[in-house]
Amino acid sequence: MSDTAWFADGLRGRHVLLGLVAFFGLIFLVNGIFIYYALNTFGGGDTSDPYRKGLNYNETVAEAARDAELGWQAQLTYETASGRLMLSLTDRDGHAVSGLHFSGTIGRPATDREDLSANFNEAESGNYAAMVRLAPGQWIVQLHSNELSRAGDPIFRLKQRVFVPEAP
Questions:
Q1: CATH topology for 50-164?
Q2: Would you say 128 and 96 are in contact if contact means Cβ atoms under 8 Å apart?
Q3: In angstroms, rounded to a whole number, what is the distance separating the alpha carbons of residues 58 and 36?
Q4: 76-97 pLDDT, tens digit each
Q5: Could you give the C-alpha distances from 36 to 4, 29, 30, 32, 40, in angstroms and in order?
Q6: Which residues of 99-137 are buried (b: 16+ CB within 10 A; e: fewer)?
Q7: pTM strictly above 0.90
Q8: For residue range 46-87, what is the model confidence (pLDDT) as tens digits?
Q9: How far is CA 14 from CA 7, 11, 19, 134, in A?
């Protein structure tokens, strides 16, 4: 064995105190780093006023049922090169649904820091386009028609994720 040991004179009180201070200091440092990143990287809830939306859950379900009754099929695509977000809308029989105007928001799933507003205009029959520059990654697109039903609700709503790949 070695002639020198860490505590040649024995383990004393100051060694224990320094060990405890170092141990708990490391714990506080790591917790502080976690708290900093938790508070600065997440913007909060994914919807504004979630309590009121929860109270109106039955109306939301009824609205989704009305959308399902229409039988409209929506396809959302993003062209990275041109920065064009396209919405293709067809009815139950596959015919283009035209004559609408859409507006909405485009944002990241976990933060509201990059939220964008978009207005979609009909580029050709049943195809609606908006020009937006989206960075690579996941985006959530929420659209609603500006035209209202008799009840005063938008005729059509859409909430869909879009993935924008890295440019080669």
A1: Immunoglobulin-like (2.60.40)
A2: no
A3: 38
A4: 999 888 889 999 989 888 888 8
A5: 43, 11, 10, 6, 6
A6: ebebebebbbeeeeeeeeebebebeeebbbbbeeebeee
A7: no
A8: 666 778 778 888 877 877 787 777 788 889 999 888 889 999
A9: 12, 8, 8, 58
